[in-house]
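Last lecture ended with a question: if I hand you only a sequence, what can you say about the shape of the protein? Today we answer it with a concrete record. The protein is Type III pantothenate kinase. Below, first the input exactly as provided, then the predicted structure, then a couple of comments.
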Amino acid sequence: MLLAVNIGNSNIRFGIENEGKITASWTINTKPYKTTDEIFLLIKSSYKLYRIKAKNITGIVIGSVVPHQTRLVAKALERIHHIAPTIVDRNTPSPVVHHSNQMGTDLYANAVAAHALYQGKKIVVDFGTALTLTGIDEKGELLGVIIAPGVITSLNALVGNTAQLPDIELSEPKSVLGRDTETCMQSGMVYGYVAMVEGLINRINASIGDDTTVISTGGLGHIYQPLTQKINIDDKLHTLKGLCILYEFNQK
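The predicted structure:
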């Protein structure tokens, strides 16, 4: 079994891959930042909850956009499994071609998974701390990326910089036009982001001259994908799948 770990700005997602399928997955909060001992205990308790035997894990792959947490997570995992994790990044070889010296590992893993799992041209919409859209052509060349503030990032900024706007549950309101503060904000955060994502997908399609397969991922993709016909598939494990593919590709 392979353990894949995606260290993001908001969450650290773990996944167990067995015979080509991710059979278990869970997250812990990235913040507040944790010590190696705290990470060690959280992983051990997760194994107990999901009935995972540490001895059955024969490989570990880590992708991270939080460098100072990478070493601590790797150290905790090595302490549990007595094997050194493989840490991948944008320079790890794969069938995907890119020309960036700044690309985050999550964006690269998203592109790798999209190229391996879907035909033709693809767009990956990642609803994370940042909202990102990554374009990949049918040959595996990464065409470019759009980065915008993520949904929760925007919501926190709105609530934090106003005196009377409350924190809200992120869910679809009954009407586009809200009747109270909560539903007004829900409409803006839900339908506003749907409109932005649809508009950006349209612009990407116009730019590359072809309709694309669109995959959403991240913790909020399941909220937005049902509200638009522009997103074909929602897969919260998409980034983890990319990390697993990177690991396997480099074991050959």
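Comments.
1. The chain has two domains: 2-88, 120-243.
2. Residues 120-243 form a domain with the Nucleotidyltransferase; domain 5 fold (CATH 3.30.420.40).
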